[in-house]
Every structure is written in structure tokens, then in C-alpha cells.
Amino acid sequence: MDNHSANLSRIRTVIRRAKRWDMIFGLTGLLAMMLCVLTLVALFAQMAIDGVPRLSWDFLTSFPSRRPGQAGILSAWVGTVLVMLVTVTAAVPFGVAAGVYLEEYARKNWVTDIIEINVTNLAGVPSIIYGLLALGIFVYGFGFGQSILSAGLTLALLILPVIIVSTREAIRAIPQAVREAAYACGCTTWQLVRDHIVPYSGAGILTGVIIGMARAIGETAPIITIGALTFIAFLPPAPFAGEPPAGLFDWLFAPFTVMPIQMFNWVSRPDPNFHYNAAAAGFILVFMTLAMNGLAIWLRYRLRRNIKW
Amino acid sequence: MSASLAAAAPASLPVTSERLKKKRTRHMKEQVIEALLFFAACVSVFTTVAILYILVSESLVFFEHVPLFDFLTDTQWTPLFADAHYGILPLLSGTLTVAGVGLLVAIPLGTIIAIYLSEFASTRVRETVKPFLELLEGIPTIVYGYFALLFVTPLLQMIFPELPGFNMLSAGLVIGVMIVPYISSVAEDAMRAVPMALREASYATGATRFQTAIKVVTPSAISGIAAAYILGVSRAVGETMVVAVAAGMQPKLTFDPTEGAGTITAYIVQVALGDLPHGEIGYQTIFAAGLVLVLLTLLFNILGYWLRRKFREAY
Known about the structure:
The complex is a heterodimer of chains A (309) and B (315). Chain A is mainly α. Helix content of chain A is 74%, strand content 0%.
């Protein structure tokens, strides 16, 4: 009997010790998460404290200046908008087409394998390498120069894998029955893709496009590499402005700057007054990317709930 | 009715060939579309080929001027000075030091968070934290650079007063925090893919959550976790803006994180900002440096692939 109760108490000790480890790890996990979250909250808080006082209508409508109090981000946000326009126009058709091809057309052979491995690997290439690629190909190879067009195409290449992967995921979620029904009615593959696959996966593709764009907006390194200027006090030409040969697309070849580069420029200056400008620009940048990512996540959750095949 | 039949009969032959023609054009249209889509899918392959071509061809010109031996053994990197030295070692030491500090932060934190989210947290916590982590992945890196230079460095200087304004420690720490979400979300996905039956079997033998997590779930998901680490390594090595802002841009052969130094990526940014003329040796140095960076990430990726193969668990 004595032996039995001693055994029991020993077992209880073992259990208690095991449970204590459980609790310790649970607390460690919470702590680790809190550490990350708090660090980031500190980041935002500090940026907001430094930056928000600088935010004003003037800040959005002024060019950069040597005097920190008068400097603004007009050329930066206009540049960002135009570069994003090029990026979307280039990346979406290619990305969606590639995704559709890989899901609906591709046969299982070595060519397809190579393409798939490539898409995966490209996602792991450091973004600055895309900058070197663009410097060699777009800027000097094709002679686009250090222009909005070069920057837009560079970012398009960069986010292509994101769009391809999300397109494929969205397409894979469409049940096989839809395809069988379409083929049974005599549809060709293209008719199936155009009338069913792309419309049904549209929202999923959109999610991927938004995430890709949010990433592209924040990318600095590849754009610095192709030689974006850091101080620009003019806007790209408006369509058809200026002398008669001026066309609709002159702005494509204009020099430019974008928000992250403007911020980089201000952070790198020794004068602390410029740091407030950097904080304000960073605040806007983070707000934009968070809003876009949030929209994408919300879209995805909503979709998962609503689709009943 | 018979009249209409009679009218249709003579015309029936041409109608068939009309249909055949329609079918043929339809088929051709399909083929053209498939070719176009195939071309779009090939853009990614073209990109890879173009990256390799550009890096290698420009580097070849570089290596005509600089012997490979000097490149690999010289301990100074001063390509823009009058007394030019082209030794990649200082850039490599900077890159590896910053990435090392970052991984020392990111791997433990990322793993703990992944285990916590997958094995300990309630569904509600997980569903709130996961989107939040995804949100953090999207924050521009230049913002983290700002954070490293103007928040973390002053903070560290309160603890270590002799710390210089540009140092690899704060850059590395911030990169670490930055890549935690990548590591934790990929590792958590891998752990969630472990079948429930394994956990149930473990609980049935009387194991606690912690024991199950450490001894059953983690080993089963190890290939996915390795993939997460490799992703983290690639990010840390290729990260540009944080180091360009906070680590200083002076290439120095040192592994001491409390010093400032240059990394491969920071050097490329520095040269790109300096408006170097196309075709000069200084211009080609960034391609040689870029080639080293790509080879480095490639090395880690192959290592990761090998690890995944070696430790893959078949349930």
C-alpha cells in the first residue's frame, strides 16, 4: 500500500512537471508574440508622433525642397501612381495568362516543370537583383532610360510570381464539374477559360493583384538601382502637353521619383528636420500598404465565406 | 415541309464544308491563344535567363580587369577610390554578419510563435494573429530602415554608449523582427499540415501539449520548417534598404556587429545613387557583387532543397 501511494505521488510529480512546461511554453509563446507586436507598435507610434504634425495639404502638394519645412511629396506620389499604372498594365495580363496556362492548358512534361520551378525560384530572388536586371535590359539594352517605363516594368517582373501563384490558387478552387459541364456543351478550352474560369476566379486573382501592388509600392531597392532621381522638382509631362510632337505617352519616358525613394532620401540626411518629413512620408506609405493588404485579406475571408459551389 | 427539304438538300454539301471550315478556324484560334498563353508563362523563364545573362556577361568584363584570385582574397573593397581594391570579402563579411544577427532574432522567435499558434493558441487567437502577421509582411522595408536608424540605434546607444551611429547590430535586429512573420507563417502552415491522428496518438499516450509539439509535431513538420528558415535566410541576405540606411556603407572586413560596415546590397545602392557612367569598371562591380549575392542565395536554396529531401516525412 505504501509502495503504491509513493508511486502515485511520483507520477503526480511527473505530471505536474510536464504541465509546468506546458504553461512555461504557453507564456513564452505569448511573450514572443507580444515582443513582435510591441516592437511594431513602437515603430508606428514613433513614426506617427514624428510624422503626423508634418502632414498637411501643403505637404502633399509641394515639391521637395532644400528647406525641410517647405518640402513635400508631390513628385513622389505622382511618380508612384504612374509607375504603379505601368506595373499593373504589364503584370496583370502576363500573370493571369501564365496562371491560366499552367492550370488549364499545360501538359505534365518537363517544359511545365521548368516553368513551375522558375516561378518558385523567382519569388526568392532578392529584389535588388531585379534592379540590376532592369539596369542591363530596360535602361541600357532597350534604351528606355531611367524612366517611369523602366521602373514600372521592373516592378511588374517582380510581382509576376505573386500574381501567377494567386491566380493558380484561385483557379484550383473551381470544382472540376464546372469544366466538365462546359466541355460537355461543346466549349473549347478558351471559351471555358473566358466565360467561366476567369470570371469565377476573378476575386481571388484580384486579391493577388492587390497584394502584389502593395509590395510593389514599397519596393525601393530595384528602383534606386535603375537610377531614379532622389530630388525632382517637376512633374512628368501631361498627355499632349507641350510642343506638337508631344504625345499621349511622353510621361512614360520622364525621369521620376517614388515615395519610398523620397523617404530614403530624407532618412539619409543628417538634418533631423528632414527626418520628420521622412516619418510623414513613411506614415502615408505604411497606411497605403496596410490598407491594400487589409483589403486583400478581407476580400479573401469574405470570398471563402460566400462561395458555395 | 417537303419543299424546305428539297431546298435544303442541294445546299447540304456546301453547308458541311462551311462547318468544317468554321471548325478549322476555331481550332486555329484555339492554337494561337494557347501559344500566347504559353508565351506569357515563359516570361518567368526569360526573366531568369535574362538575370543570369546580365550578371554573367557584365561580370566577365569585370573579371577581365580584376583577376578572380584578387576578387576572392583581397581584404579591401575600394573600387571607387584612386587606389582601387576589388576584394569581395569585406562585403561578404558585412552581409553574413547582418544576416546572422537577424537570424539569431528571427529563427527562435519565429519558431516559438509558429509552435504557439499551431499547437497552443485557440482558434480565435490564431485567426486574429495570422492576418495580422500577413499584414506585417507587407510593410515597406525602407520604413524598417527608418526604424533601425532613428529608433533602435538611439535605444541601443543608451545601453552601449560607445556604439557608433551606423552599426550592423541595429540593422540586424530590425531585419530579424522584419522576417519573423515570414518564418512563423510558413512554419505554422507546415505544422498545421501534420495530420491530427499523430497528435491524438501522442495525447493518448499521456503526452502534454508541449511534449506533443516538441517531440511529435515539430519533427514531422521539419522539412516545412527548414523551408521557412531558408526563406528567412534568403530575405536576410538580400535585404537592402535597412542596411543601406542603418549599417553605414563602409565596407570593412569585420564580423563585429557593433561596428558599421557595408553589405553587398548596400554597395549596389551606393553605386546606383552615385550615377556611374555606363560601361566603366565601377559600373561592372555592381554586377559582380550581384552575381555573388545570387550565388549566395542559390547556395542556401539548394541547401534548403537538400534538407527538405533528406528530412521529408511521409505520413
